Amino acid sequence: MTQQIILYPLFLQIAIGVILLFAWYRIGFQKIFSIFGSILSVGLAGWLFYYIWTSGTQTIQAGNWEAPFGITFVADTLSATLVLLTAISGLAVSVFSAGSVLRDRLRFGYFPIFHFLLLGLNGAFLTGDIFNLYVWFEIIIISSFVLITIGGEKAQLEGAVKYFTLNILASMIFLTAIAVLYGLTGSLNMADLAGKIAEIENRGLVEITGILFLIGFGIKAGVFPLYFWLPASYHTPPFAVSAIFGGLLTKVGVYALLRVFTLIFVGDPFLDKILMVIAILTLVSGGIGALVQNNIRKVFSYLIICHIGYMIAGLGMFTEVAIAGAVFYLIHDIIVKTNLFMLSGVVYRLKGTNSMRDLGGIYAKWPRISLLLFIPLFSLVGIPPLSGFWPKINLIKAGFSGGSYITVGAIIFASFITLVIIAKLWAEVFWKDGKELPFRKNFGYFSKMKTYKRLQFLAPVALLSIISLYIGFGAEHIQELSARIADELMNNQGYIDTVLNLKK
Amino acid sequence: MRTTIILKTASNYLLPVLLLFSIFILLRGHYLPGGGFVGGLIASIAFILHSFANGLKKTKDILLMHPGFLIPFGLSISFLSGLAPVALFDLPFMTGLWSHDPVAILGNIGSALFFDIGVYFVVVGVTLTIIFTISESA
């Protein structure tokens, strides 16, 4: 039964996590093993992706209990793609962690927890059961609590408190929503729910349940007005941690929204309207928020929020073209946001600060590194043919054909404001004449590092930049992929039939 | 910490009794209330009581190793019990495997028992690590 492949990424992450727990005190071994395991997981995820691409949506019933009674794991093209992207980001961050995270932090089980976080992400993408999705979310947030507090600096703990109060709240609302949903239908399997929700007469109750899910996932995804925890916490932990958080954690929320609102709460005009309004406000407020920040990581945090708006807008417009745009943006965003936070780590090690006012002169001193960092920055803006450009075509096209001109306006405004911010950042950090900063004695400056250590900083950035370039220049392939995903999401009967085994 | 001689003497006898009871709870868990989680908690209570009466150092000497080591140990037992149907019979993850003939006292042995044993060790490991860390820093 080759369907077992679906769960192999999960098995691998558990195995890596457990083996790393056994080697609690051997930091050197943990570094090597984590990188090795991550390479293996990219291979496995690639295999899974190829398998799903060639043979369509596959399911496996954990414990061999038939759906809808047991827990189903489903790999459709969206899940397989996200598992692959998680593996790639995971590899990059694993290498980056080995170079950048201080030994004092690694001593407290950084690497095992990191792999449990990846396990939670993979599980969330692959599960077909809404309660099981909640459990994976719990694994994700528990691991992320450890990662965000590890080291215990004052600023870090302050950020962590905000982070986990709101995330616990989100989990509670999510759980309540599941309870209501279960009370309405008596089922937890998402494919089964799709049919049962459609039959319910009391649409008001269904809409309220949908709103509860929207709030729960919205806090996690960081949409307006629920995003305030995000810029308050993402600039405090080590750079590697904020890279994986910025790249993947908010995207799990987006994934959950995509899944729930294309499968369970489908085509409800009220919910779609709310999604559109939220998307527009997220685009505008995130962009304006980023404009006034000085700390690079805070700028990127606000840009995360701003760009979540694109995906929510795609979901709100709810046409095949719009969903394809949202999915394309999701693919581009995971890679580029992970890369941007690693970039801020590189900048920090070059000059010893992250404040735009104090930075400067990097281009004059390190022209080659600057060119490397140019790629993720301007991929984010989406100067054609770099990767951020293509999904917006889909979104704007869908906006015009749907007649939602305000959304188109907001999308263009957000793109423009991103351009302004990145241009300002480029000018301030790279072009401006550098100030003489006070020399910090015990600081691990980039110029003092050995070559292999430098490589651990630059190789992951280079890897993700190459992938960003591929997404930009090979946009045709990604477009084909997102069109297929959008087709699967919009015509969800295939998914339902596969899970409930109705296909004869 | 001052402890009475009664508690000190009693805890020496309570430790094996409570451990035995925790294993009983663990084994009956498949059909009746109980199981790995509760069993693990009872086992850790046994050690905590011992440490209250005799001091942390003596309890650590009994344990032979750091309780944190039990966490990956238990996790791997649970994980392997789930993996067994995949590796041996090509059935989905966590499918229950059961022996044909019942074993004396235990009844039918299945992969679920090993999952529970894993949970038992993880709970003991986590609880003792937390309590020991707190009482060391207090």
UniProtKB/TrEMBL annotation, chain A:
Keyword Cell membrane assigned: yes
One GO CC annotation: plasma membrane
Domain NADH:quinone oxidoreductase/Mrp antiporter transmembrane: 129-418
Molecular function (Gene Ontology), one example: NADH dehydrogenase (ubiquinone) activity
Alphabetical UniProt keywords: Cell membrane, Membrane, Transmembrane, Transmembrane helix
Annotated signal peptide: none
Spans through the membrane: 6-25, 32-53, 73-96, 108-127, 133-152, 164-184, 204-227, 239-262, 274-292, 299-318, 324-348, 369-390, 402-427, 457-475
InterPro entries, sorted: CPA3_Na-H_Antiporter_D, NADH_UbQ_OxRdtase, ND/Mrp_TM
Compartment list: Cell membrane; Membrane
Gene Ontology BP, a term: ATP synthesis coupled electron transport
Membrane topology: Multi-pass membrane protein
Family as reported in the entry's similarity comment: Belongs to the CPA3 antiporters (TC 2.A.63) subunit D family.
Protein name: Na+/H+ antiporter subunit D
UniProt source species: Christiangramia crocea
Automatic annotation (TrEMBL), chain B:
TM segment ranges: 12-31, 37-56, 68-89, 109-134
One Pfam family cited in the UniProt record for this chain: MnhB
Keyword Transferase tagged: no
Record domain Na+/H+ antiporter MnhB subunit-related protein: where: 6-129
One cellular component (GO) term of this entry: plasma membrane
Topology class, membrane: Multi-pass membrane protein
Family: Belongs to the CPA3 antiporters (TC 2.A.63) subunit B family.
Protein name as it appears in the record: Na+/H+ antiporter subunit B
Species in which this protein is naturally found: Christiangramia crocea
PANTHER family: NA(+)/H(+) ANTIPORTER SUBUNIT B, NA(+)_H(+) ANTIPORTER SUBUNIT B
Localization in the cell: Cell membrane
The keyword Membrane is assigned to this record: yes
Keywords recorded for this protein, A-Z: Cell membrane, Membrane, Transmembrane, Transmembrane helix
